[in-house]
Amino acid sequence: MLLALLLGTAWLTLWSLGSLPLTDVDEPVYGQVGREMAHAGWAGWLTPHLGGQPWFDKPPLFYWLTALSMRAWGVSEWSARLPSALLAVALVAATYALARRCFPQERRAGLWAGFALATCVQFFLLARAAVTDMTLALTLTLALGALYAWTQTGRGRWVALAGAMTGLAALTKGPVALVLIGVQAVAYLLLTRQARRLLSAALWGGLGLCLLVSLPWYGAMIHLHGRLFIDGFLGANNVTRYLQAEHSATSSPLFFVPVLLGGFFPWSLLLPGALAAAWRQGRSEWAERSMDSPALFLLLWITLVFVFFSASQSKLITYIFPLYPAAAVLVGAWLASAVHTQEAKTATRAETFRLLVPLGLYVALSLALVILLFSVRAKYGIAPQTIIVWASVWAATIPFCLALGPRAWAIPGVAVAWLLLSAWCSPTWRTQETEVSDRRLAQAASLVVPPGGSLYALGLKHPSLRFYARCPVVYEDDHAQAAADLKAHPGAVYVLRPEVLDELREKYGVVNCRELLRFRRTVLIQATPARWGGGAAVPGHFTAPVRAREITEHL
Fold first, then answer.
1. Which distant-in-sequence residues (6+ apart) come within 8 Å of 219 by Cβ?
2. Could you tell me which CATH number the domain at 439-552 has?
3. CA dihedral in degrees (274, 277, 283, 284; nearest 10)?
4. Residues 300-348: pLDDT tens digits?
5. Residue 221: other Cβ atoms inside 10 A
6. How would you label 513-526 residue by residue, b for 16+ Cβ within 10 Å and e otherwise?
7. Which class for 164: exposed (0-12), middle (13-18), buried (19 or more C-beta within 10 A)?
8. Contacts of residue 317, Cβ cutoff 8 Å, sequence gap at least 6
9. Beta bridge partners of 494
10. Can you say whether the dihedral through the CA atoms of 365, 368, 374, 380 is positive or negative?
11. In angstroms, rounded to a whole number, what is the distance separating the alpha carbons of residues 419 and 329?
12. How far are the Cα atoms of 81, 118, 138, 420 from residue 5, in angstroms, in the given order?
């Protein structure tokens, strides 16, 4: 059964993995840094670079994995996303092992836990994205799982594994990994009355191994780049981002409540029951002065991740993903217990009520999600047919759940339908790729950029331009300087928004430019000799020595 679960997860994460272009704003950045690292040779793997400049947004582990994938399989969307897809399968296996470790009395807890994780919404999305979240979730899960195994057995190999994984987590996300794992270890040992273990040689040896894994890179960066690294990475990308909100809409302390409800869907409907059961078990074990409390350990895990990132002033919806494995284990153990009890086999009024409540929430959330998808489909490039098919399957699962009655495995049927549908529909997003990536624009622009020249992006920060253009991309914000360059350098190619082009013409008198095409609410223009004049794009007439068909082939 475990093998079937892992093979199913691998198929769902790898199938059509490269069907979408790398979507702005994060994926092209990670892909470009990985590509520059792969092409720089082994000596260039120490310092990440973006556009030839040192880039300290994240530590290097995910960049290393991406670079290795691109060296092995070439530069493509598939190779950029492959590390996340493979690590997603490993995370399901780690979640299965964690559940077996925490709840050995429930034979099926591991399978339920792995299944719950593999079929929740956010797991599916992050497993198919070139971002660091899956790498962090895996390293953190292995570190905390090994830490719990050490508290159970006292064997030094577990704390060594925990130290090594903590070091890798620090090379994935930064000091936040040390904070989360360290606070979890201290809090759990204190609550289970094992404070003396905080001074054990094994634990300090694990800490030493963590530093041995992570500190060499941090030390090298401080030595090579000094204040640039300290202020850029430790300052701006960690401390400042935690203390100052980048977007006012994410500053609410309740920001992650709907994120958890939607991201862990459909299992978020069962999470309150699983948390309540774990709370009762943990409170009972604490009252009995037990030194082994898996429920308490998992509740701490979920609480610490949720509270820590809720306190952050800057928030992204992926920040709480590291708590999903712990939540999946609690849901899996709760389901395994329900399925194997006599009460789960008898349809009583109370059990029917317990099914209808999450089912009602499921219907309400489904309708709200359909409305939300239609409202944002243009912004995020969701094909209308995808939403229609999703809604149809959601409607079809309602009688399916009712037919099953009040059995604990009704909701998993919904999860299967959701995941299979998502995998099937993902290629349909290709029809809307112009809304999520500048791949076609960048490839078309590369045809008109003079040899040895650059593509200039005025007022645009789309990273996909740099990843897909077959020429250097220069990002500019100074409109006056751009106007001067367009007047002085015939042949210069710019991509900008239509209103910016109007400003250049009206305010700065730029008339010697010609529109080549309009794409994704942007305009591709090229400066022409003054005697040519300007004008709008005319099909078949381009200022560069390239046929119209060669450009339109990319659109």
1. none
2. 3.40.190
3. -140
4. 999 999 999 998 888 888 999 999 999 999 998 988 877 655 444 554 5
5. 23
6. bbbbbebbebbbbb
7. buried
8. 122, 256, 259, 263
9. 456, 525
10. negative
11. 19
12. 21, 9, 17, 14
Which residues are CB-neighbours of 286 under 8 A, at least 6 positions away?
A: 191, 192, 293, 296
Q: What are phi and psi of 438, to 5 degrees?
A: -100, 25
8 A C-beta contact, residue 499 and residue 477: no
Beta bridge partners of 527: 513
Contact 392, 94 (CB under 8 A): no
Rg (C-alpha) for the chain, rounded Å, is 26
| HEC letters along 135-201 | HHHHHHHHHHHHHHHHHHHCCHHHHHHHHHHHHHHHCCCCHHHHHHHHHHHHHHHHHCCCHHHHHCH
Residue 88 has φ and ψ, to the nearest 5°, of: -65, -40
**3-state class (DSSP) for residue 475:** strand
pTM for the model: 0.81
Contacts of 307 (CB under 8 A, 6+ apart): none
Q: Which amino acid is at 292?
A: D
End-to-end Cα distance, the chain: 45
| Structure confidence by residue, pLDDT tens digits, 395-439 | 555 554 554 444 444 455 555 555 555 544 554 444 455 557 788
Q: Return residue ranges of the chain for CATH 3.40.190.
A: 439-552
